[in-house]
Amino acid sequence: MAVRKSKSAPRKPRADAQRNREHLLEAARREFKRSGADASLEEIGKQAGVGPGTLYRHFPTRDALIEAVFRDEVEKLSATAENFAETLPPIEALRAWMLLFTEHIAAKRIVAAVLNTYTGGPERLYEGARGQLLAAMERLVARAVKSREIRKDVEPFDLLRALIGLAYVPSGPDWSESARRIVSILIAGAQRAK
Fold first, then answer.
1. Does residue 82 belong to any structural domain of this protein?
2. Residue 111 — very low, low, confident or very high, per pLDDT cuts 50/70/90?
3. For position 82, which CATH number holds?
4. Which H, E and C letters describe the chain, residue by residue?
């Protein structure tokens, strides 16, 4: 009698496997910031407290690790928009997320050399992230419009595009402070006339 295999939902990773993956992502994030494109996968594994086999089981290639770190950052950024929407007044949630987004841009600038080593260039990564980030911005803007704190003609994509434009401004010691001022200008321009 033949045993039939039933199709079931994919298994969730074991708790220890999930922890290893999270440790690897965090170690990779730190090492990419510290060493840039020269980051050693061996050092990442060592910092995460796992051996090479575990590293390569989770991330079979350097590109797979770079992509996972980038996607993890985008997912956390999107999840934070939800958290801000639940815990802050609408205009403050929008402001806080825009400021957090500028920090994300600053971090991405630090690891730009790593992202540029991604096979085929980082554009594919950015393209996939754009929709997720736009959805987060749309939720925050809709909430602020509904509360009548910002004008209803404010386009979420325009705000996102303005923030993304900060990535192209040459870095300097005052970059972060300038980015915060730009967020304040964008919020002031979006607010309803009193």
1. yes
2. low
3. 1.10.357.10
4. CCCCCCCCCCCCCCHHHHHHHHHHHHHHHHHHHHHHHHCCHHHHHHHHCCCHHHHHHHCCCHHHHHHHHHHHHHHHHHHHHHHHHHHCCHHHHHHHHHHHHHHHHHHHHHCHHHHCCCCCCCHHHHHHHHHHHHHHHHHHHHHHHHCCCECCCCCHHHHHHHHHHHHHCCCCCCHHHHHHHHHHHHHHHHECCC
